[in-house]
Amino acid sequence: MARVRHDRLDCSPGCAVEATLQFIDGKWKGVILYHLLSSTLRFNEIRRRLPSVTPRMLTTQLRELESDGFVARKVFPEVPPKVEYSLTERGRSLEPVVMALKAWGDAHAGVAAKAA
Amino acid sequence: MARVRHDRLDCSPGCAVEATLQFIDGKWKGVILYHLLSSTLRFNEIRRRLPSVTPRMLTTQLRELESDGFVARKVFPEVPPKVEYSLTERGRSLEPVVMALKAWGDAHAGVAAKAA
DNA sequence: GCCTATAGTGTCGAAAAGGATACCGTGATG
DNA sequence: CATCACGGTATCCTTTTCGACACTATAGGC
């Protein structure tokens, strides 16, 4: 599972913010969720969208997303192995969050532009 | 500055998501931003809201938020030192993001409840 | 017989993030 | 004179995270 940001809930109301962050933290989770919002993808399809992620990292991130209940992993017992990753209901519930992140990034970070 | 999540922008459109995450990542930044959305706060006022953060961490997080242009630090040359932290325009622009995070946390994580 | 693709796993090590603890100067207060 | 509050620093150490790289099984194609 991802880093546990706080065990103590001593951040009062703002804690919910961190609680959410806890789940989408992880170097690639944001992008993975984003891509899965558009469609179900296979392992290597995700890799192709994220060229610099190593298989090990991708596995880790997907497994965490799975155990957090955001992603469903469906294995097809075929011979070139086939595994599909899709969002669960819970995963889709993150859509507003992911979209807010993307909107801000597009508007303020310019995707590549450094902070003003 | 916070961890650099990616230098390569090879995550295509989803990259904006990570770009944003990059800024609010950092164990306490989310909550700090959240609290500053309500009011300007002094160093120790923030500490009191986040009892388990050490002064060192708080300084680090605030300095990063400052250098990312989200927070303004105003020093009053008084004698019990007085320093006020407030959000900049850029900081306020994160409001929808922070609120989306909080909304999801309230709705799905129950602030304390573990994943369903 | 060798290469390809798929979906991973294993091991190792470096680097970054975070935590604990102690300490600083100043001026007012007791 | 000693203590307190303020806003931090400095130092050290542990934990977590990430990346490189090699390696696996299976079936089909050439």
UniProtKB/TrEMBL annotation, chains A, B:
Q: Which UniProt keywords apply?
A: DNA-binding, Transcription, Transcription regulation
The molecular function terms of the Gene Ontology recorded here are:
DNA binding
Q: Which residues form the HTH hxlR-type domain?
A: 15-113
* Gene3D superfamilies per UniProt: Winged helix-like DNA-binding domain superfamily/Winged helix DNA-binding domain
Q: Which PROSITE patterns match?
A: HTH_HXLR
For this protein, the record's PANTHER family field holds: TRANSCRIPTIONAL REGULATOR, TRANSCRIPTIONAL REGULATOR, MARR FAMILY
Question: What name does this protein carry?
Answer: Transcriptional regulator
Query: Source species, please?
Result: Methylopila turkensis
What is the phylogenetic placement of the source species in the record? Bacteria, Pseudomonadati, Pseudomonadota, Alphaproteobacteria, Hyphomicrobiales
